[in-house]
Amino acid sequence: MATKNHELLNVLQMLVETPGPSGSEHLIRSKIEAEIRDHVDEVYTDALGNLIAKKGSKKEGGRRVMVSSHVDEIGLMVTHVDENGFARFITIGGVSPLTCLGGRVLFMNGTQGVIGMERLEANEQPSLAKLFIDTGATSKEDSKIGVGDVAGFERPFMNMGKRLVAKSMDDRAAVAVAIQALKAVESTPNEIFFVFSVQEEVGLRGAITAAYGVDPEVGIAVDVTRTGDTPKGVKMEVALGKGPAIKVRDSSFIADPRVVNWMVEEAKAQGLPYQMEVLEAGGTDGAAIQRTRAGVPAGCLSIPCRYIHSPSEMVDVDDLQQSVSLLTGLLSKSIEI
Amino acid sequence: MNFDILPFLKSMLSVAGLSGYEAPIRDVITPVWQELSDKTWVSSHGSLHAMRYGEGAEPRPKVMIAAHMDAIGLMVTGIEKEFLRLTQVGGVDPRILPGQMVIVHGTNSSETVELPGMVVMPPAHLLPKDGQKGPLPQKYLLVDVGLRESEVEKLVRVGDVISFATEPRELSGGTLSGHTLDNRASVAAATVALDLLSRRKHLWDVIAVASSQEEVGGYGAKGSAFDVMPDFAIVIDVTFAKGPGGGDTVLFDMGKTITSTWGSCDHPALYDAMQATADEYEIPLARDFAPSGSGTDAYDVQIAQAGIPVVELGIPLRYMHTPVEVVSIKDVKRAGRLMAEFISNLPLDFMNTVRWE
Amino acid sequence: MTEKFSPEFGQAELDLLSRLSNALAVSGDEQEVREIVYEQLQDFKDSMHTDAMGNVLVRHEGSGPNRLKVMVAAHMDEVGMMLTKEDGDGLFEFVVVGGVDPRQLVGKPVMVGRDHIPGVIGTKAIHLTTKEEREQALKVNALRIDVGLGGSKLVEIGDRATFSTTLQVLGPSLRGKALDDRLGVFNLIQLLKNAPENIDLLAAFTVQEELGLRGAITAAYQLNPDIGIAMDSTPANDLPHFDGEENTTHNTKLDGGPAIYLMDGATIGDRRLVKWLTETADAEGIPWQYRQPGRGGTDAGAIHKTRAGVPSVSVSVPQRYLHSPAGLVRIDDELNTLKLMHAALSRLDKSILIPQENK
Question: Which domains does chain A possess?
Fold first, then answer.
């Protein structure tokens, strides 16, 4: 277990320290490709930029399975640089102005910046219109960034022992789980397409086309989910450290009950702890898979995560390891649903 | 003589079948549709398809009748002592929930158990400020199934679906009330059409679809349309009848007319042809306006693959998305008859007339 | 010695309680329950009558010496609605009778009049509402009872209506409408059928309790008892606090046994009677609880102020969700209430009236 954890943590750290906001996934994609290349039969990048790795071929009782974890993260895009070098921006994906305050960002070209805010009037709430990025430039001419430049949030990976913190745990924690499961699957009757999807944070866009292209018979998204285990937090049963969460629904889709049961039975068979998840906000690639072509039974394996879409997202290392076991088990056997 | 639609409709209103969990209602419809069709099958999304082969020479054109069978309802989000917290599946006005009788479909033990329960309002003093006045936000509502904590723990898990328990009741003047008349009234109408078609000649293949997941976004019909690829489709759903609190939109007199929709999802040539059939058979057909889309399966069918021409019919219904919806049985029969007359009169080259001028 | 009274809740009891609970007897029109009471108490027909208000009064005289005259009251009426205006197309305006929270009315099946004509209270489709509208509670005057397109022939204005709810057993619980106070009516019928001989049991099946204890006022005057006991139902607000804090205002709890009243908004329970009840429960090993002192009221509020005064107390079955489409009680609490009442009455004599300091 210890060495496995070690490898998982190394992969995770590599992933979370690579920037890749939606639409700018080239760096993260090449790192993932390098990590998995030796473990798969075939790997390619599709027209939208999804990295797709095929492992196994369909045998008796096997299915064509799509496993989707998204590689993109939330971020910012510059809309204007003013005369004094301050950059205004819009968000890529769901970024709250509250989590921007005091934040540091890293542009894809390596430029660093900090987020500042205009003066607020009495009782005024911080809003994106009040925020700007200061890259240390003294003027527009001096600025290393311009309109269209993309930045991700910048925070170091923190290993607290049982709990791990980083920006972009959504969804790199799931990507790490998918990568480790991809490596762990040895023999399988299934034809598995591991899709490392792009542009999830702006509307599951990568998974939509990947699902059409892969044309799977069963789909599993791997993503993070909110928890209800913080002081006066949202009312939700999922908690950190209580095992992988099996999604029943979120606001984007109702997981196919056959897939839900398949996951529950596998968790029981392995003796893994698991939690049932009903998420009242947010969506995952599972929805995109479910709706492709004539429809595909799809579900989602969720990794409990606190403070989602903040620069300090927290996951539990045991949840990750158990998620790897669950996903590996699901993919290694014939699928009867 | 004619298929007796009322008992069949009531039996459909007596079962659950929430979006994504349509098995109970599919099991009620299947044997009836099997009798009235040449073959039935279930789509990957759980929609029921029933095919009646036409008498025309192959390759025959085909028409799809789509009526969604899924129900709105609730779902367990948390368990606190013997009480269940809830969210909704499909659109439910939380103001109708306090005091509502429900059935919790508990799956935490080896067998699914149906637990009668009720949605309840905790007293104000147990709630934060926004729960102390006015309608109670959904997050504060609970379900009580009358069992003690240890039993609830054994039987119920997060994610279990909760259906409305209101029994169908005949009201006066040939009206019927119950939950999920949206849209099982239309499934009944489709059944009336299948029944009539089983006793008369039709050249076209007819595929009736009881679609899944309409209330959460039309995903059942979308997959079915992709799969079946009909030449055109009739999408039938309920529409708003005049009634208390109806508001200022165009509404229809329950029991006096059915509707055909005029808007972005509806092919004008099909609209005209349907209106002509209604005129010919003296079936009252009012125009329902939906310039930006009607919020039914029509859109999802329309955009399948390279596109499918659609005509939409509506059955006026009072109190949509409450467990006490009301329709007139006469309207249900009218809609079924109109579809049957329309389909049995379709010539094989009908699609040549479905054109943009 | 008489045989120990050990009530059970079998099919016969369920049938009777179902009939009582499912009956429509909104305050002012209690006839349907009155008929069930008469039918159940045929053995008492010579000592039973209906008074000017509509209360059913039954006297059961015991046999020993020095018998205490004990009035036990349970109210027959329930909260509900009355049709007030016809709007056409089977739609009727209505007002509420008694303390019905209008938020409980929306989207419910109802029944109207002596013939239980089915109807519904609908509301605007969610699709046609605005967010602002959904944040406002619907008022009664915006709602209609809809009995269907041919309704005007079947019901008329002035008819009473109530929720169309059928009593159901849910595991250890009973769920039904009007259990406030048909459980009391049910218990009073059982007490009469098993009446202790050491007292004169003066039973009052009262009317119009929900409108201000009106029936009990005249019933107590007529019966002129030595002591009075109201058997009613009281809220169990034993739900979880949203933020997980301790619920300190539960009033009563299910599974806590019969609720004995120290004080409510209408009555301060006679200390001697409170002690008599709690000591009986302890002696008999019957679980019991105090109803938390608070507001509300029972028929005891009318009884204790009758004539020169009547020492009075109330005993209630704890119940969740009173005055809604259905309340919920535990069968154990119901049986323990009946057991306690019977045991307490059986050990009652005039010594209870000896004045004592309130402790």
Answer: 2-73+167-332 (3.40.630.10), 75-153 (2.40.30.40)
